[in-house]
Amino acid sequence: MQKVALVTGAAAGIGRACSVRLAKDGHAVGVLDLDEARCADTVNEITAAGGKAMALGADVSNRAQVHAAVAKLRSALGPITILINNAGMAEFLPFEEITDALWDRMFAVNVRGTFIVTQEVLPDMKAAKWGRIVNISSSSAQTGTKVQVHYSASKGAIVSMTRSLAEALGPFGITVNNVPPGSVMGTIMSEENRNRFPIPIEQLIASMPVRRLGVPEDIANACAWLVKDETGYVTGQTIGVNGGRVVT
After folding, report:
1. Is 233 a catalytic site residue?
2. In the prediction, which pLDDT does 206 show?
3. Is 3.40.50.720 the CATH classification of the domain at 4-231?
4. Which candidate among 2, 107, 192, 244 keeps its CA 20 to 30 Å from the CA of 91?
């Protein structure tokens, strides 16, 4: 039976790659981003390959918008039992320049957004007695970064949320894991901030054990594995996809 997945932040980058990969694996996909129109390319790529997908628009930090989008997806394609919480924002700023408003917005999108979307799809997973949730965190949450204190802190919260949700939802047949990407190019955030990296790209590549930067498909591959039936014994885990930048 075809499962329905919801991927947030899916208009481009990691979210788009996850959506395309999940569709390739036979899942119907709700492609959600802040602007529904921006999801068209992702949806078209999926449908052109014979998959099933629909575009959804919502600010993940807005409960009413998320509720409406989830209801629309559920009505069109069925109960949602796979969730990739990918929507997020990043920013490079010295700590002293982070304002209260910037701090609050970072946590609203990265943390409250994950909280809201997960709550909204959870009834479907509990009813099915099966669910897969993958939260996209960040390797910055593992290492810290001096010019992204608010971002790193918000992604650290995602790691902790993942562990707690795994404990809470395991008895319902729901697994919860998180993937912290490291040095992935080809995303909106990486392209917008390319010139703000603390070190030159060439130096970053030279420091990586695999001697290359990541691509969105690297993250999508990990997510595709984590949502399989066969990975039901994997929960509460941090699955680093970072080319060896973080070794645990």
Report:
1. no
2. 75
3. yes
4. 244
